[in-house]
UniProtKB/TrEMBL annotation, chain A:
Its main location: membrane. It is found in: Cell membrane. Keywords: ATP-binding, Cell membrane, Ion transport, Iron, Iron transport, Membrane, Nucleotide-binding, Transport. One of its GO terms (molecular function) is ATP hydrolysis activity. One of its GO terms (biological process) is iron ion transport. It is a peripheral membrane protein. It comes from the Bacteria. Residues 9-244 form the ABC transporter domain. PROSITE patterns: ABC_TRANSPORTER_2. This is ATP-binding cassette domain-containing protein. GO terms for cellular component: plasma membrane.
From TrEMBL, chain B:
One of its GO terms (cellular component) is plasma membrane. This is Iron chelate uptake ABC transporter family permease subunit. Keywords: Cell membrane, Membrane, Transmembrane, Transmembrane helix, Transport. CDD domains: TM_ABC_iron-siderophores_like. It is a multi-pass membrane protein. Belongs to the binding-protein-dependent transport system permease family. FecCD subfamily. InterPro entries: ABC_BtuC-like, ABC_transptr_permease_BtuC. It is found in: Cell membrane. One of its GO terms (biological process) is siderophore-iron import into cell. Its main location: membrane.
Amino acid sequence: MEVPNEHTISVKELSVGYDTLSVAKNINFTVKSGELCAIVGVNGIGKSTLLRTLGKLQPRLKGTIFIKGEKLETYSPIQLSRALSVVLTELPASKNLTVQELIALGRQPYTNWLGNLTVADKKLVQQSLDSFLLTELRDRKCHELSDGQMQRVLIARAMAQDTSVILLDEPTTHLDLYHKVQILKLLQNLAHHQQKTILFTTHEIDLAIQLCDKILILDGTENPFGNPCELIDQKHFERLFPPEMVVFDAKTGAFKVNK
Amino acid sequence: MHATKSYQISFVLILIALILAGVLNISSGSVFIPFWDIVSALFGDTLKEESWQYIIWNYRVPKAFTSILVGGGLSLSGLLMQTLFRNPLAGPFVLGISSGASLGAALLLMGVSMLSGWTSFTLFSDISLAIAASVGSFLVLLVVLMVAQRVKDTMALLIIGLMFGSITSAIVSVLAYFSTAENLQRFIFWSFGSVGNLSSQQVVLLFGIVVLGTVLSIASIKPLNAYLLGEHYAQSLGVSLKKSKIVIIVATGLLAGGVTAFAGPIAFIGLAVPHLTRQIFDTMEHRILIPAVFLYGAILMLLCDTVAQLPNSAHLLPINAITSLVGAPVVIWLLVRKRKMLF
């Protein structure tokens, strides 16, 4: 178990992008264990690029990323897979996997060369099924699931991977309000009760304000980071969208259309 | 993952089916040998008829053994391709791997003799034919992999495989036009596919290739399972993409290239068998699928070869025709019944 308040993921002067094209730069933040952090910003500002860079799925352009105090580049693939798991927007390539098979794949970093599950592995898979309300669906195939169920399965797989850091790319897209809240509450629960560090990108800024401990706003310049109340006080959300279209109401913490 | 136990009965049944298919295959042929004589010969008894003894041990048993290697090897290569390219329609034939082998064989059998003016095909040993076909299939596999890295669209991949097929048949037609009758005939017989014309040395060589390919496949079980989630997920699970891809490609090339080199381009087995296997073994777990697909492919190949014998006649149908007649309807049936083929 992690020591509470350990700086689990920390980023200094980070620039992300492709080859020479920098998408987002000057990113600085530190998320501690047990914290749920949202990454928000307009389309194309580099949220997903940042997330993939943090997960070492694409190279960073500049700056340093620390995972549990160690530089990201010092991790071997297998070490990283035991420290950090991801939930991506792309769906699993095979739609024929059952829920349980898919979640069990999360144990790969720990299993032997054949991928045999030990009793402890099976217990963790069971816990992940239970935590994400999937026990009844365990034998369903992925192509039989709704979007909300699929998203829970993918997060449960990341939980089964048992890493201190979990990165999620737009976990609430395509879901109705109830299922958006359900997913975010499950993530909050996972962060607070199992001391995980969870970062996710989202467009649900009002939900993030209500449920997250920290928010990183990618605005293309200073990229403010902090807890939601601080960010509201500093009027960062007002500047996120053009005010002639969308205005931010600091009292309710919600956006409104400027009529 | 599913408990391995629940598949034990299926594996016992499939092994029994393999033995039955093998005995059936050995008992059919142009010379009629009573069934119980076959069985007692297989148990090591000496038969009264010496010619029967000779036919069984020097012709039919090696042929059945070759069928097992060919069917199992091709099917396994199809499974590897479907997982690696995450494409249910991938297979040695569809992706143009068999075409590559054909091109290699055609260039050797017809092209070299055309250029150098040699007419005697005895110059080209069977081993050099095998090497030419293997090199051809490996090259196509590498090109397909390079394309797959750039083009994420699975349809594009299949179309490229199709184009390879067209290029091959075009080059083969050109070569055939200038080729001598003997060399052309030799190429055409190779392209019909056959499991019965291998010398004992060739059977041993094929056995070695298939074993090596299978061992590499088994060593790749974990990355193969991770690839079911997609490349990014596999990477996040600690799989080294580069290393695992090389091993899987080499295994596929050995299995598909090796088999095609010795037995000719045999259609549809590699594509259809993994899907048929998933009808019985309802899992995506490669620990189960690798042995199941191999055994299933072996059985299907034994049966196809038995049909190709036209029991009790001297005629031998091209095995490629039989596998197409069996395999193509299976693929159509799967597409119609399941709407989309899932892998």
